[in-house]
Amino acid sequence: MSAEQPPPGGGTAEGAAYADRFAVETPEMVAARSRALQLPGSPPVEPAVGAVLAVLAAGAGARSVVSIGSGGGLAGLWLLRGMRTDGVLTALDGDPEQLRAARKAFADAGVAPSRARLIFGTPAEVLPRLSPGAYDMVVCAGPPREYAEHLPALLGLVRAGGSLTCHGLLSGGRIADRTARDPQTVAWREMARAVREDETLLSAVLPIGTGLLVATRRS
Ligand SMILES: C[S@@+](CC[C@H](N)C(=O)[O-])C[C@H]1O[C@@H](n2cnc3c(N)ncnc32)[C@H](O)[C@@H]1O
């Protein structure tokens, strides 16, 4: 690609910064982001990604959403913004400190306790307790090796017309580098391929934040 030719989709650093500025966070979201950044582990969703989660939730009229690797609750706050006001977010994380931070984020934002169900555990422990086909959205974050093996179970939670999103697949650009063979990159590649090849799904990769894989189960 020549220097004059911008990357497809105008994917520049300035464009990404604009997309993040466009997605204005509430003071409670700003506080949740700042707390989450102080905790060990990967950072929370970027504002542009959070905004897309809210848009998807609103478009689906989401009443029932599960967030896997919910972290300090920032993605949850964005999801709750888009969900119906009687909707319930099920947020699962294997780190009690992250769950504590999420509980505080939801309380500070005035989210009624009945609207957020926080569950401590790994996908292997918790997924079998969730009802198949009952969720409008399943939202995954964190190391793909932790949930790639659960992809069939994750997809099994999604109702017809509902969606699965996985955040982080473009992190470091390794997925596009054919020579990158580290286990997390390989897990991302395999998961993205499995999603794309699943004929019950329509899927896309959005190059926002660290990359969002989005798939909708055909009705
Ligand atoms: C990138 S952070 C999530 C950020 C969150 N989605 C947000 O935007 O606010 C990833 C989270 O996945 C959790 N996690 C990683 N591996 C896990 C596992 N095996 N079981 C449960 N949670 C896990 C981590 O504790 C961490 O909170």
From TrEMBL:
<dbReference type="Pfam" id="PF01596">
    <property type="entry name" value="Methyltransf_3"/>
</dbReference>
<keyword id="KW-0808">Transferase</keyword>
<dbReference type="GO" id="GO:0008168">
    <property type="term" value="F:methyltransferase activity"/>
</dbReference>
<dbReference type="InterPro" id="IPR029063">
    <property type="entry name" value="SAM-dependent_MTases_sf"/>
</dbReference>
<dbReference type="GO" id="GO:0032259">
    <property type="term" value="P:methylation"/>
</dbReference>
<keyword id="KW-0489">Methyltransferase</keyword>
<keyword id="KW-0949">S-adenosyl-L-methionine</keyword>
<dbReference type="InterPro" id="IPR002935">
    <property type="entry name" value="SAM_O-MeTrfase"/>
</dbReference>
<protein>
    <submittedName>
        <fullName>O-methyltransferase</fullName>
        <ecNumber>2.1.1.-</ecNumber>
    </submittedName>
</protein>
